[in-house]
Design goal:
six-stranded parallel β-sheet, single chain, seven-stranded parallel β-sheet, 36% helix, alpha/beta
Length: 374
């Protein structure tokens, strides 16, 4: 290994963080750089600037961007050559900077450096596994399993993902929740008695057919107002609502992360329900944590890992389009929430997540500790 010195003269590892995505789409990255800064680490973040933005993060590390426009909503077949060019770019940077260890965020990133995972950096990387992609394809899943097995530390954002792995073959795994940083409340719980009840969704607007059904369900029900914040299929859904004469559902389009706090201040209930499929069923979405940060009652999909994970929490409502009386039940649930019990519910979940985060921090400290590598 090649060891480096930080500004204080301490001998440290040189770490390369690899991210196959835009900075503003990777909230989990902020937690890592904050921890690495607190440990006075020397690191670079190599990332794919897909929307050619000038978005930046304030931290001690250096940022190295692969600047190439990419539409994330396109089919994989149209993105393959871009991934190949990103992989070549990353290999050039790693060879030039000679990192001691790597941190790989998400499977597409790991796949772009498979040769390094199986070769030079075998046992010297952290693999952060956050989203399912093509794991239903068995040969692909075998590759992902091998990447996890050869990692010094395997990190996952949801215990629901672990069903895809042979855990007995993995050296060490820890849970790292989909949070921006340490959870801290930014809003005092306020249960609105005004009508209509404002339900908000923020994030990428996908699953068009499912959301058309959601729009039809909530459409023109005077008890509710529904707002979608985010890029993606919002134009198509907005046109759908216009054609259906739906007036209580609105779309705002793309937003910046700093705007979420403003959305939250206006929201009564946060919508976090999706069509249940291979990708969404085992996940713990970012809005699980947004709900807690901003103390917003939360809607999740029935028959998902999120529902089972949150089944004992007062602030969570299980939602299904197959339930014909779901809006009556939702209205009844919200209007009868007990404030003290709901606050306790947020506190209980906060305590559970904080314990997991402490374990993750200790694992990351061990991973970048120079003394532990000798």
């Amino acid at each position: 290994m090649i060891f480096w010195q930080n500004k204080d003269g301490d001998i440290i590892l040189k770490i390369g963080l690899l991210l196959c995505a835009n900075l503003e789409k990777a909230q989990y990255l902020y937690k890592y750089v904050e921890l690495l800064d607190s440990m006075k680490c020397d690191y670079d973040v190599i990332y794919w600037n897909r929307n050619l933005s000038d978005y930046s993060i304030q931290c001690s590390g250096s940022f190295i961007s692969f600047d190439e426009k990419m539409d994330s909503f396109k089919h994989l077949i149209w993105k393959t050559t871009g991934y190949i060019r990103f992989s070549r770019f990353v290999h050039i940077i790693i060879k030039k900077n000679q990192y001691d260890k790597l941190i790989l965020f998400t499977t597409p990133t790991a796949v772009s450096v498979l040769d390094l995972c199986f070769g030079k950096y075998k046992g010297k990387y952290l693999f952060d596994y956050r989203d399912l992609t093509k794991e239903y394809f068995k040969p692909y899943m075998k590759l992902v399993q091998k990447v996890a097995c050869l990692a010094e530390v395997f990190v996952t954002s949801s215990p629901g993902y672990l069903q895809n792995f042979e855990l007995e073959k993995i050296k060490k795994w820890v849970l790292c929740h989909n949070t921006y940083k340490d959870i801290s409340y930014k809003k005092t719980l306020k249960l609105s008695t005004e009508r209509p009840i404002l339900i908000s969704y923020w994030g990428a607007v996908r699953q068009v057919e499912y959301n058309k059904k959601v729009c039809e369900l909530f459409g023109n029900d005077k008890r509710f107002k529904f707002v979608y914040h985010g890029e993606g299929a919002y134009d198509e859904l907005s046109q759908f609502c216009k054609e259906k004469g739906i007036e209580n559902i609105h779309f705002t389009g793309r937003y910046l992360l700093k705007e979420i706090e403003k959305f939250a201040a206006e929201t009564d209930i946060l919508f976090n329900a999706y069509d249940t499929d291979f990708v969404t069923t085992p996940s713990l979405a970012v809005k699980v944590y947004d709900s807690m940060v901003y103390q917003l009652p939360l809607i999740v999909s029935k028959d998902t890992y999120m529902e089972s994970y949150l089944q004992d929490y007062e602030h969570v409502f299980s939602f299904s389009l197959n339930n014909k009386s779901v809006l009556d039940e939702l209205f009844e649930w919200y209007t009868n929430l007990d404030k003290d019990k709901t606050i306790h519910s947020f506190e209980k979940l906060h305590s559970k997540i904080s314990e997991d985060e402490m374990i993750f921090k200790k694992s990351l400290e061990g991973f970048v500790d120079y003394e532990a590598c000798n």
